[in-house]
Design brief:
423 residues; alpha/beta; eight-stranded mixed β-sheet
């Protein structure tokens, strides 16, 4: 299929500029003003909406195989497309756990059949994500984004060191969910203002940053490429900033919800429950500082759908996890870019550039490159209505909020995978 995308507002490091984009055979043919459509070309008028490189999310949960009552590859990637994402990396807390090539291939076959965007799965670090024996990293290495036991931390330092040595040999990333089980004490929200005021059991910040500190020492020792998932505390930011300063090969991510909410915003509702939890106002400000100074490399959603029943048990008893693919850009754009707290080029770097360099997924908006792009109406507000989501999950702390930035179109390999008419 050939497309001519007319009247776009193309994102560049120097701002937006008017441009038409010609697409054929899955690639961008040219970007210029006043392009004419060749015979057989489908013309799409973008009405001056913003055109970005397709976003990359290195941390999602697509739930299949094993938990298709929560999400499927099809619904999860349709949700990604609606959010402007062209590349996603699903975590391995599945059934079967992808801890060897045979198990991984079950997931890969579903991706090949049902994926609407590029999907790059993680392999598990340990067998069954149990932390006791190393998974078959070598067998999976050619087919995975990296290795992670997301959903739980690798509790044993010797096991994490062994994994890092093997990942280094294979040239792959270790993406770590950092959580020390010894410090959880049955907690389920941040050990802070709201927990104390409402009689909830809290999760201390050290349960996250303590394991990060351990892993940073191991990464420095082994030379492993180390990526820290969903950081939420100011101590985590400080540790990673210091480690980068001394040359440790580390990157990290945080989520949109940690940048907008804090524990003062909690309600007695499962849509505010995720792991790690919403932290303090001071933690939130430290995360923003980390975005601005380059300590935090990426914004990732940790999109984690659950059934309505699993999320309907209140703050204490609901499952951990919220959905985020369809609100991520709009949430950060509304709350940080529009008020002037985060420059737009930095947001695009956080959603695309850094992940593309670190993980190797994602392409620039240039002639000759794959046509993976997304189009947003930045001036259009909308109220977040979970019932309109493409994901099967409905739990989001952004429900009912007015956000700016409607995704009008997403294109993957030159094919339109999401379109909402512009008018």
């Amino acid at each position: 299929m050939r497309y001519l995308l007319k009247n776009g507002s193309l994102f560049t490091e120097d701002g937006f500029r008017p441009a038409d984009i010609s697409v054929a055979d899955g690639r961008i043919v040219s970007i210029a003003g006043g392009l004419d459509a060749a015979p057989g070309t489908v013309t799409v008028d973008l009405h001056h909406a913003a055109v970005f490189p397709g976003f990359v999310d290195v941390h999602v949960h697509l739930r299949e195989p094993g938990f298709s009552y929560k999400e499927t590859i099809r619904t999860g990637t349709r949700s990604a497309a609606r959010g402007g994402y062209t590349h996603v990396c699903p975590m391995p807390n599945l059934n079967p756990v992808p801890d060897n090539l045979e198990a991984l291939n079950v997931q890969r076959e579903l991706i090949a059949r049902d994926g609407l965007v590029h999907v790059h799965p993680y392999g598990a670090i340990t067998r069954g994500e149990q932390g006791e024996a190393l998974a078959d990293l070598e067998g999976m290495a050619p087919f995975v984004a990296g290795f992670s036991d997301d959903g739980r931390g690798v509790q044993r330092g010797d096991m994490m060191r062994t994994a890092m040595v093997e990942a280094k040999r294979l040239g792959k990333i270790i993406a770590a969910h950092c959580e020390d089980n010894r410090l959880l004490s049955g907690g389920y929200i941040h050990d802070g203002t709201y927990a104390r005021a409402h009689g909830h059991r809290g999760i201390c910040s050290e349960s996250e940053w303590g394991q990060i500190a351990r892993d940073l020492r191991l990464a420095e020792e082994t030379g492993c490429a180390y990526h820290v998932c969903h950081i939420s505390t100011r101590e985590s930011v400080a540790l990673i900033r210091e480690a980068k300063g001394r040359g440790v090969d580390v990157t990290c991510e945080t989520g949109p919800h940690y940048l907008v909410f804090c524990d003062e915003d909690l309600q007695e509702d499962g849509r505010f429950k995720m792991n790690p939890p919403l932290r303090s106002r001071e933690d939130r400000e430290a995360l923003l500082s980390g975005l601005l100074d380059g300590t935090i490399d990426m914004i990732a959603t940790d999109h984690a759908p659950h059934s309505a029943e699993e999320k309907g048990r209140g703050l204490e008893n609901s499952a951990m996890g919220v959905v985020g693919l369809e609100t991520a850009f709009a949430a950060v754009y509304t709350h940080l870019v529009r008020p002037g707290r985060l420059p737009m080029p930095r947001l695009v770097e956080l959603l695309h550039g850094s992940a593309a360099r670190r993980f190797g997924f994602g392409t620039p908006l240039e002639a000759g490159q794959p046509a993976d792009l997304t189009v947003f109406d930045l001036d259009r507000p909308f109220v977040v209505d979970p019932e309109r989501f493409q994901t099967m999950g409905r739990a989001t702390p952004f429900a009912g909020m007015e956000l700016y930035g409607v995704c009008r179109m997403t294109m993957v390999d030159g094919e339109i995978v999401w379109r909402e008419e512009i008018g």
